[in-house]
Each structure stands twice: as C-alpha cells, then as structure tokens.
Amino acid sequence: MRFHFVWIGKTRNEHLRALVEEYLKRLSRFVRCDVTELRESPQSEPRLCLEDEGKRITTLLASEALVVLLDIEGRQWDSPGLAAEVERWQSGPAKEVAFVVGGHLGVAPGVRRRADVRWSLSQLTLTHEMARIVLVEQLYRAHTIIRGLPYQK
Fold first, then answer.
1. Residue 47 domain-assigned (yes or no)
2. What whole-number distance in Å separates Cα of residue 131 and Cα of residue 136?
3. CA within 13 Å, CB half, 141
4. Into how many domains does the chain fold?
C-alpha cells in the first residue's frame, strides 16, 4: 500500500515542515509514503489558477488510486472511526490512496469529481500548512489504533 500526498505549494515554515516530516517518518513504518508538492499556479485569474492546478493534480493521480480530497464540506470522523475507515481503504482493491490538499482557492471541479472520498479535518479553518500536519498526524494515529500500539507522543 502506498499513501501519496499531493498538495499545492511548499510548507514554508521550517518548524511546521519539520512536524510534517516527523509524522511522515512515523507513518512510513506502516505504509509507504510519497509527497508531491506542486508549485502554485502563476495565473492571477482565480478560474485559470484552479484549472491549471487541477490539471496538474489530476495527471498525478493513478487511475486505480483511491482519491481522498481534503474538503471543508467532507465527512468527519473521530479517531477510532478514522482508523476503521483507513483500514477499509487499505483492505480494498486500490494499491494507492492519494490524499489531495488544494491551494488557497480550493480545487478545480474535475479534482472534486475524481475524489472517491471527501474528508474534512475540522469545522475550524486551518492554514494549508497546518492541515498537512493534522492530516499526516491523524493517519499515523489511525495506524497505531489499527495495530493496538500505544500512541508515541
């Protein structure tokens, strides 16, 4: 199983980047993890920006991948519920789960249509950099729950 994280822009804050890397390292003990950071679109017009980013995102998504879009209107789980969902994703036919975090404008309609699952991390508004941390930390937590391991703080 492979987790492929696709997001727009780099994590600029070095402290936040270090947290993302730490949780990716922990998570990689359970599942192969790859990150693709796409540059932000140079387009100034929002519609063109979304189209540009959307095309680049969709070309990265394997046709057989289960695509999980982080979306404020998506489904929310508690930690045990997320663990059950992650286990279901991993036991399904897909060999890859792609997690997509859009840019500051969101994602193009084509990316939204391609998503198999829409996941909302919180009802609160998070920066995209914080969302990346919460995403990988919660996936790590889900794997510790699945395996009955104590959570390493």
1. yes
2. 9
3. 13
4. 1
Find the domain containing 29 and state its range. 2-146
Tokens of 8: 């727009």
Q: Which of 55, 54, 50, 58 is nearest to 105 (CA)?
A: 50
Backbone dihedral angles phi then psi of residue 63, each to the nearest 5 degrees: -60, -30
Structure tokens of 78? Answer: 């508690």
Is residue 104 domain-resident?
yes
Q: What averages of pLDDT result for each successive group of 10 residues across the chain (153 residues)?
A: 97 96 98 97 92 96 97 96 98 97 94 98 94 98 96 66
CB 5 within 8 A of CB 35: yes
- d(C-alpha 60, C-alpha 36), whole Å: 9
- CATH number of residue 26's parent domain: 3.40.1280.10
If we measure between CA atoms, which residue out of 102, 135, 127 comes closest to residue 12?
Answer: 127
- For the whole prediction, is pTM greater than 0.85? yes
Distance CA 143, CA 151 (A): 9
Rounded Cα distance between 105 and 66, Å, is 23
On the CB side of 47, how many CA atoms lie within 13 Å of its CA? 0
Query: Quick check: is 152 in a domain?
Result: no
